[in-house]
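Lab notebook, bench 4. The sequencing result for the construct came back, and we need a structural model before the next group meeting so we can plan mutations. Quick request posted to the team channel:

Model the 3D structure of this chain.
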Amino acid sequence: MASALPAPTKFPTEAVQKSFRDQAFALWLLNNEDAMTAAYDQITEKDDPTAVVAFLADLYAETREDLETYTNLAIACALVHDSKKGGSAINRFFWYVKHDKDDRLFRDLKTMAIADLCLVVDGVDLNQMDWVQNEYRRKAPRSGTGKVYSDIEYRMDFVTGETDRKDVYEEYSLAEIKKHGGICSDQTHFATNVCRALGIPAVGLSGSGDRGAHAWVGYQNDDGIWTTHGRY
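Done. Here's the predicted structure in token form:
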């Protein structure tokens, strides 16, 4: 029985042919079969495979050591930010690498799966992530970090319409939400992004029940088990 094709060949030809002109990078891709297979499995119709491979090639040329140490992180940044301009993917990659090396994150990014890392790097802008680091790195519990959901005061006046949200939030930043409070969707946005800026996979969830529409946060604890906070 013939062996399966190497993972990079599963990508469209145009995604790899330019990058494969660098034989050293091509060899690196072929030697990272598991990572590239995982990357391929995560790609959806919204992703740009050419941009993913090109991002890895750029990182290989710029910082091979960091790419080899944080391969899965690089792939996650490429997958999540492949369509965003202004160096979003590479800036986010280096932000997480720096904070991981400085031991400022609650998870070891070097050992995490690509699927989990995609739920870490898909967050707010880097300025807001710096705010989280300054405000929450020492305050938030390493296990149960999603409980920061409850740090946001619930604003019933937002629900009743007594107060117009547009009069409260100017930029809808995490700092504004912390200062002014909000409803469940704001609590969820806040908790999800605090978790992610601390290196914790997290996702915002929503649904409807007898009490109407609601939103809450799902996040991964130290033991790798997913849990929620804010759900009723």
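Residues 49-62 form the longest helix (14 residues).
Will bring this to the meeting.
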